[in-house]
């Protein structure tokens, strides 16, 4: 069963508004787009059910939770190319924010939060290092963040300049 991934210009505008502020009300989105709130609600439900909108959440400042240290950890594992057990085990660790299967010498790039270098060391030794297939790790501690944004670049228009250039799920008939 294929998923319908077509979106129109109004859907793109709705996604842009919600990415800027996920708490924007349906009535406010409707006002900005010159539509009825019921039409916005219907579009939102469709975007949610089709998976275009994955969810809504508050972005909490990690310092308020005592998790001021940010690190990226390269993990090398001994498993087949398409095995997922190590990645799933990494993802189950609460301090792990992101797990990316990558190319190159390492298998995974993992974004983690910890209180301090001591807690990071414990996390690397006792949690990540305890995963059976993990062979080695390399860590980079972040000294400062210039940009961190979870908003995706939303195209100005729903359609590419040429229908032939568009992936099948974006083409219009």
Explain how this protein is built:
The chain is of the alpha+beta class and 173 residues long. It folds into 2 domains: 1-59, Winged helix-like DNA-binding domain superfamily/Winged helix DNA-binding domain (Arc Repressor Mutant, subunit A), CATH 1.10.10.10; 62-141, Alpha-Beta Plaits (2-Layer Sandwich). The chain contains 5 helices and 4 strands. Strands 2-3-1-4 form a 4-stranded antiparallel β-sheet. Strand 2 (96-101) and strand 3 (108-114) form a beta hairpin. Helix 2 packs across helix 3 (37-49). The two termini are 20 Å apart. 14% of the residues are buried. Mean pLDDT is 88; it is low at 158-173.
CATH topology of the largest domain: Alpha-Beta Plaits
Order of helices and strands: HHHEHEEHE
Shape: elongated
The CATH architecture of the largest domain comes to 2-Layer Sandwich
Q: Tally the structural domains.
A: 2
Helix and strand arrangement:
Elements: H1 9-20, H2 26-33, H3 37-49, E1 69-77, H4 85-91, E2 96-101, E3 108-114, H5 117-128, E4 134-141
Antiparallel strand pairs: 1-3, 1-4, 2-3
Helix pairs in contact: 2-3
List keywords for this structure.
alpha+beta; four-stranded antiparallel beta sheet; Alpha-Beta Plaits; Arc Repressor Mutant, subunit A; 173 residues
